[in-house]
Design goal:
Layout lengths: L6 H13 L4 H9 L16 H26 L3 E12 H7 L5 E8 L4 E6 L1 H11 L15 H21 L7 E8 L13 E11 L2 E10 H4 L8 H9 L4 H12 L5 E4 L7 H5 L17 E5 L2 E11 L2 E9 L10
Antiparallel strand pairs: 1-5, 2-3, 2-4, 3-6, 5-6, 7-8, 8-9, 9-10
Helix pairs in contact: 3-6
Length: about 325
């Protein structure tokens, strides 16, 4: 990676060169010398900055969908935001989470392999308390889940994966499915300890309770679709035309849309005093002669002119000519 100097560092370097404190020739010699950088093979870099940015965009949408979903399910204030997206060894992720936590192990076909949605106990027990009729607070002491609590947790997080499916829709059609719910990280080994994972950290607030939700995606799982996470793929996919079936469905729905048609007989202006004294039988004179074509509007736009008449004992308007499409109506 290339180190980028800040503006303050650039100004300090230029000042030192101009004052003679530093010699430009010495800088050139240092630049030609071989530079050695430390590389930790346990922290292999598998995701580029481009991939990290794409994963951030995807899971910002995921956070918004989760916020809507949990707000509706818990009927309380819920706020979820992406804090960071980073890559690290799987073993480091396991050591960083509490010994007692909620681990939702799931698969997402057509991807092969398992992923994990880890929910901090503060957040998980606040959800559980809210679902069971409480105010949504986490207990002082975290205990093991009962069978009923486990079933409740499985149900709410199984449906939460629909938000993940929606967030990834622009990249691939996933079918996430909850495989198991664990509470001890030591019993969960989805990949080898040195396998690089993408860790998406979501800050979560439920009422007054705060905590983290971490999504662990092993590199080996999404490796087949890594090219789709590039910016180039995003722009190309946005330019793709709709399938003929989608166009046909869209056109069919448009043709069934109802539009308001208004035939204006004319306009008139009266004073407030005249308006307040109107009685049945009074006549209001319009500003348009009887033989002049009527303005026919579609919504607020003037589209046709025509003449009034009747058909089958009902009032009707016959279209005479088409006005320039999209012409605005201006009141005189």
């Amino acid at each position: 990676m290339v180190d980028v100097m800040s503006q303050n560092e650039i100004d300090a370097l230029l000042a030192a060169l101009s004052s003679g404190e530093m010699d430009a020739e010495e800088l050139k010699k240092e630049d030609t010398q071989r530079k050695v950088r430390l590389y930790d093979f346990k922290r292999a870099v598998r995701f580029s900055k481009d991939h990290i940015r794409s994963l951030t965009r995807i899971h910002e949408n995921f956070a918004r969908y989760l916020t809507t979903y949990f707000s509706a399910q818990l009927r309380t204030f819920v706020q979820i935001n992406v804090v960071q997206v980073e890559q690290l060894p799987y073993d480091e992720f396991i050591r960083s989470i509490p010994k007692m936590t909620i681990l939702n192990i799931f698969e997402a076909e057509p991807l092969e392999g398992r992923m994990v949605l880890e929910v901090h106990p503060n957040v998980a027990y606040a959800m559980l308390d809210r679902l069971l009729g409480g105010v949504g607070v986490s207990p002082q002491k975290i205990a093991a889940l009962t069978e009923i609590e486990t079933i409740v947790m499985e149900r709410i997080f199984s449906r939460a994966f629909e938000s993940l499916q929606e967030a990834w829709k622009t990249i691939i059609d996933l079918s996430p499915r909850l495989e198991a719910l664990e509470t001890n990280p030591q019993f969960m080994q989805i990949v080898s300890p040195n396998e690089t994972i993408a860790l998406i950290s979501l800050s979560t607030k439920i009422g007054d309770t705060t905590g983290m939700i971490n999504l662990c995606i092993p590199h080996v799982v999404i490796e087949p679709i890594m090219p789709r996470l590039s910016v180039h793929h995003w722009f190309v996919s946005q330019k793709k035309s709709r399938a003929p079936e989608e166009v046909e469905i869209l056109q069919d729905r448009l043709t069934q849309a109802k539009l308001p048609i208004i035939a204006e007989l004319g306009e008139s202006q009266i004073t407030i005093h005249e308006f307040l004294n109107l009685q049945p039988g009074d006549v209001i004179t319009l500003n348009k002669p009887v033989n002049e074509p009527l303005n026919i509007k579609v919504g607020e736009k003037l589209k046709f002119t025509g003449s009034a008449g009747t058909t089958k004992s009902k009032m009707a308007v016959q279209i005479g000519e088409i006005v320039n499409e999209g012409a605005e109506v201006h009141d005189e």
